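User: When convenient, might I ask for sequence and structure tokens for a protein?

AI:
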Amino acid sequence: MKKIIIATFALFELIQNTHSLKAENVSQLTELLSSNVCIGCDLNNVGLVGANLAGAHLNKANLSNANLSGANLSNADLSGSNLSGASLNGANLTGANLTGANLNGTDLRSSYLTRSIISGNQLQSAYIQGAVGIPQSAGTKDLFYSWGLMEMNKGNYKGATDYYNKTLVLDPAFAKAHLGKAFCQMRLGDYFGAEQEAKIASDLFKEQKNKSGFESSQDLIKNIEIASKPAEVKPPDPNFLDFVENIAIFALQFVRF
């Protein structure tokens, strides 16, 4: 009885923030809040900001354009659900099953995706900036690389390195990822690691007969050597900033967003 009363109170509060909610939707929302189960529900446009839906069974539910910002959906079953255009900004999706879910235009910024089940290109058209714990299975090598490049160009070198590492798990011979990782490591002060990655990139580009990539790798190796020297013995390097810009331009040539 207590659970039903709490669910009813929550329902009235949520309806105030929900637009275009039909009578049948109200019934399904009541079912979800009282039992945590609503398989195949039609809850498009529903407002469930900050709702506690941990472990909820929402497989094949229509949650398109729903507002689930900050909601707790840890271990929830969202397989086959329609989350297109939905806001899950800051939501907890730890361990959630998103197999086959429609994530076209879904806002997953700053969400928590550790141990979530996502595969293939599901995140390709979602907004994932600041998302934590994106699983290895959630993207392709090109997708991870493009995310790494975007983070690098924003100055988030640690985040970029994480994406480049995921790229290299899928394809250790992805020369551009080694080059991007080397650049990030240099900016983070890891000169030894940066030099090792740049040399790997250089060897791969040479093997792949990619002249521009090989030259960029060699330029980076030289700049790592300069950057690693104590400030008092560093020679002037007026071309360094130009190189920084050029490496980003070089990388962008190969990325499809």
